[in-house]
Amino acid sequence: MSRIVIIFRDTGFEHDIYELTRAFYPGTEILSAYEETEEDPADILRLTVWKEGNTFCTGYVCGAEKGIIRTVLSEGQAGDAPENAPVCCETDASVAAGGQAVSSETVEQRIARHALRKENKDLLKYDLYQLLVRLTGRTLPWGNLTGIRPAKLAMGMLEEGMNNPEIAAEMRSRYLVSPEKTALAVTIANREKEILKNIDYKRGYSLYVGIPFCPSICLYCSFSSYPLEMWKEKVDDYLRALVHEITEVSAIMRTQGRRLDTVYIGGGTPTTLEPDQLRFLLHALTEAFPVEEALEFTLEAGRPDSITRDKLAAISEYPVTRISVNPQTMNQVTLDVIGRRHTVEQTKEAFYLARECGFDDINMDLIIGLPGEGKAMVEHTLDEIRKLGPDSLTVHSLAVKRAARLNIFRDQYKEMTFENNQEILSLTMKAAYEMGMGPYYLYRQKNMKGNFENVGYAKVDKAGIYNILIMEEKEPIIAVGAGGSSKLVCDGGHRIERVSNVKDVDAYIGRIDEMIERKRKGIAANL
Q: Could you tell me which residues are beta bridge partners of residue 204?
């Protein structure tokens, strides 16, 4: 298709229709209006969506083929609800942050509305998926699922008392998920349930600490990251503001009487901090929060070129239980292309150095689908990772978001090739199993190459608990630092409110008291 035009004449389900259509036509421009001319190419897909009573109508024109799909919805007004109303409403979160009531609905009404909307959304996506399969001649590995948490769906069924065959049948029949991905989701849901079985979600919470600085910005990155060289003079000011927020948030959470389950320091690259800066941060954290009681304390070291013996020594003075050394690839030519200013040898040196310093729980991240990398190059990376022997491995499928340089300046990179398929992902799974690891969490992102997923593999007792908690949305995640977005899990997990900090470093430093007060009111109103 040269273009896709989607015209919505009614509210409701726009996001899901848009995402499902884009998954079948990756890289194709999607427009909301288009004027035809006599010279227009025939390869334009036009979708028009409207509602007649309780029936959603999807009209389509694709070359010589045209028609209408009619989806009869369950009775109720859920189809008219705002897109973000059922589970997560940032508008409501901002109201809550002001200390006012979030909604006049009862919890029961809100849950019922969510269930009705979900049922209608599933019906519509089922019909749309069948149309797109017919028009393209292809299927998607995750069927008509457009959300980022397919394992959460399987976990929910497991907690409702369904057995594994029943869950698998539901995922294949209702959501049209492939047998391979169904098996993966069910396997992960069972392992997650076992790992989380002793966590009290009603009394627990996790803490995220954001360090937004990096040695350099990678070609595919869209995170709130800042090159250290340009922001070096701001780091101490940032840390002082961060420690102020840490101290105040600690007092807020003590009034809640909740247990700290996990701590995660991420970014950015936390090890861009100098040893004394790391000590300053970690000392403040251990003074403010009972981190020694946490089930897990992760520091994402990340970039090998930021890891030194002195920094690892500083980290080891505190109760950090888990770190990462993230190569993304073990092919030097690819590292040079994507802007990772480190060598393959530096990755190996950083890993062995971490082992020497006593770290016995080390994760490594890989990205599949990087520019120019095919099966042979991925096999080489996996061979090198096997020799190192990490305790866990997270395999990401490349996702290029709008804010990434690879997308913003796509004309400069149009000659690059991106390859990802089930054969390559199966290689990563096989390698993980050979290293004694099994899958324990997964999530998906928009614009993933091949419409696949990110999967975390870990040895027994080495799974990242924080990773599971943030994906399953079981308990509050309180985030401090620039760009941090706290997720407040309410109504037994049926409602999530977000309270976000500003992303800009200067704005965060200057408005830190505002960020703290926003969080104080949001937590008080929702937890």
A: 259
Helix (H, G, I), strand (E, B), or coil: what is residue 507? helix
Separation in Å, CA 190 to CA 177, 183, 205, 337, 469: 18, 11, 22, 39, 14
Query: In three state form, how does the secondary structure of 409-425 look?
Result: CHHHHCCCCCCCCHHHH
Q: Could you tell me which residues are beta bridge partners of residue 210?
A: 266
- Segment holding 29, helix H or strand E: strand 29-31
Mean pLDDT of 101-121: 78
pLDDT at 149 over 90: yes
CA distance 49 to 47: 6
Task: Please give the single-letter amino acid code of residue 284.
Answer: A
Q: Which of 124, 8, 2 is nearest to 55 (CA)?
A: 124
Helix H, strand E, coil C: the string for 98-154 is CCCCCCCCCHHHHHHHHHHHHHHHHHHHHHHHHHHHHHHCCCCCCCCCCCCCHHHHH
* Cα separation, 384 vs 246, whole angstroms: 39
H helix or E strand, kind and range, residue 157: helix 150-159
Where do the DSSP E strands lie in 129-250?
204-211, 213-214, 226-227
Q: Reduce the DSSP state of residue 298 to 3 states and report it.
A: strand
pLDDT band at 404 (very low <50, low <70, confident <90, very high): very low
Q: Is the sign of the CA dihedral 285, 287, 289, 292 positive or negative?
A: positive
- What domains can be seen in the chain, in order of their start residue? 204-526 (3.20.20.70)
Residues 6+ apart with CB under 8 A from 254: none
Name the token pair of 496: 């999530």
More confident residue, 424 or 106: 424
Task: Evaluate whether 196 touches 463 at the Cβ level (below 8 Å).
Answer: no
Q: What is the pLDDT of residue 80?
A: 42
Backbone angles phi, psi at 304, to 5 degrees: -60, -30
- Position with higher pLDDT, 328 vs 83: 328
What is the per-residue pLDDT across 162-194, written as a single tens digit (0 to 9) for each? 999 999 999 999 999 999 999 999 999 999 999
Residue 104 has pLDDT above 80, yes or no: no
Nearest residue to 211 via CA among 252, 155, 267:
267
Q: Span 270-274, mean pLDDT?
A: 95
Q: How many residues does the chain have?
A: 527
CA angle 93/96/100 to nearest 5° reads 150
d(C-alpha 335, C-alpha 151), whole Å: 31
Contacts 24+ apart (CB under 8 A), 330-338: 330/380, 330/381, 330/384, 330/385, 331/373, 331/377, 331/380, 331/381, 333/372, 334/370, 334/371, 334/372, 334/373, 334/377, 337/219, 337/370, 337/371, 337/372, 337/416, 338/218, 338/219, 338/220, 338/370, 338/371
